[in-house]
Design goal:
By secondary structure, the protein is α+β, with helices and mostly antiparallel strands. It has two domains: about 60 residues, Ribosomal Protein L9, domain 1, CATH 3.40.5.10; about 80 residues, Roll (Ribosomal Protein L9, domain 2). It has three helices and nine strands; from the N terminus they run ββαβαββαββββ. The strands form three sheets. A four-stranded mixed beta sheet has the order 4-9-8-6. A three-stranded antiparallel beta sheet has the order 2-1-3, sandwiched between helices. It has a two-stranded antiparallel sheet with strand order 5-7. A hairpin with a 5-residue loop joins strand 8 and strand 9. The radius of gyration is 20 Å and the shape is elongated.
C-alpha cells in the first residue's frame, strides 16, 4: 500500500514522504490516526505541487540547521541532579532535563528531537546526546551531569 505521510512517523519517514507500507499497518493505524493519506493519482498530483512549493522553505531550513549543528557540536552544557555520596543519582537524567539545559544555553530544541546515547543515566559524569535538527541533520551534544 502506498501512502503519503502527513506527519513525521518515527521509523517510517518524514512529513510529505511517499512510502510503501503493509496493508494492515496503513489501513488500521496510519490512516485512522490521521498520520497519512492514501496515495491515489489525485493525491500524488497534489503531493507533487506541495513538494514544489515547500522546496524553497526546506532549503532555507536545511542551511539554518547545518549552521546550528556546527554551533551545537561545540557546546557543552551542565545538567544538575540530586546525587548521593558515591556519585549515584536519585532517579535518572532524561531528555527533559537536557532540553531545559539547552534552552538555558539559548537553543530552543524540543525533547522529542533529543536521543541520549547509551542506557539511562544514573551516575554523575560526562555523556553525549544526539540532537536531530532537520531530517538528516543531527548534532552530538556533550553534557555533564553534576550534583546540585
Amino acid at each position: 500500500m502506498e501512502i503519503i505521510l502527513k506527519q513525521d512517523v518515527k521509523g517510517l519517514g518524514y512529513k510529505n514522504d511517499m512510502v510503501t507500507v503493509r496493508n494492515g499497518y496503513g489501513r488500521n493505524f496510519l490512516l485512522p490516526q490521521g498520520l497519512a493519506v492514501l496515495a491515489t493519482s489525485s493525491a500524488k498530483k497534489m503531493h507533487a505541487e506541495v513538494l514544489k512549493q515547500t522546496s524553497f522553505k526546506e532549503e532555507k531550513s536545511r542551511k539554518e540547521a547545518t549552521a546550528n549543528a556546527e554551533k551545537l557540536s561545540s557546546v557543552s552544557i551542565q545538567v544538575g541532579a540530586k546525587a548521593g555520596e558515591n556519585g549515584k543519582i536519585f532517579g535518572s537524567v532524561t531528555t527533559i532535563q537536557v532540553a531545559e539545559a539547552l534552552q538555558k544555553a539559548g537553543y530552543n530544541i524540543e525533547r522529542k528531537n533529543i536521543e541520549i546515547e547509551g542506557d539511562s543515566i544514573k551516575a554523575l559524569g560526562s555523556y553525549k546526546a544526539k540532537v536531530r535538527l532537520f531530517k538528516e541533520i543531527a548534532a552530538t551534544v556533550t553534557f555533564e551531569v553534576v550534583a546540585e
